[in-house]
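Appendix C: a fully annotated inverse folding record. The material below is reproduced so that readers can follow the format used throughout the book. The structure is listed first as tokens, followed by the designed sequence.
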């Protein structure tokens, strides 16, 4: 993960990656933690653009949302969303990116490295997001146990997120050869 030097083309790809994540976040089914296509976009951006550019795309996406650009689910934005009950899952995407970046830097971009990198990154996202959710929910609403938080925030997403991971890797195998 040494020194990062981005060229103009890298910055354009980072912007496109952030845009893809934003568009996919708008495709949502509202629930306690909304079902969105964000995780698909995060997986796809990382796999297509690589660890450095993909993680930068996630950071730009989060920064855009933090300053008020409505890029989060249901066209929301602001620091309040990031500090809200589901904000930990958004920040967790950055952990997914960092995990992917470190893993693929060490083991390469083969499916044998990418699948565990993205799966572990998703587990980190779930763990961070659930801990954050419980902390905020406990302050705002009242106590919520780990089992309940997992039932609300993780269990309903396991199969859809696995399908999104598979779809993202399939798409990336078609798109990545066309990216410089």
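Designed amino acids, in order:
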């Amino acid at each position: 993960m040494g020194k990062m030097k981005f060229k103009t083309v890298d910055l354009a790809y980072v912007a496109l990656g952030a845009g893809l994540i934003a568009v996919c976040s708008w495709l949502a089914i509202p629930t306690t933690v909304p079902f969105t296509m964000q995780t698909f976009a995060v997986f796809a951006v990382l796999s297509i653009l690589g660890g450095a550019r993909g993680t930068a795309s996630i950071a730009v996406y989060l920064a855009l949302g933090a300053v008020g650009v409505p890029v989060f689910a249901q066209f929301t934005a602001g620091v309040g969303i990031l500090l809200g009950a589901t904000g930990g899952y958004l920040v967790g995407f950055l952990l997914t990116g960092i995990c992917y970046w470190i893993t693929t830097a060490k083991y390469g971009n083969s499916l044998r490295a990418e699948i565990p990198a993205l799966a572990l990154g998703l587990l980190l996202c779930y763990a961070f997001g659930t801990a954050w959710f419980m902390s905020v929910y406990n302050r705002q609403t009242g106590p919520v146990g780990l089992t309940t938080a997992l039932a609300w925030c993780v269990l309903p997403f396991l199969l859809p997120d696995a399908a999104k991971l598979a779809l993202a890797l399939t798409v990336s195998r078609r798109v990545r050869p066309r990216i410089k």
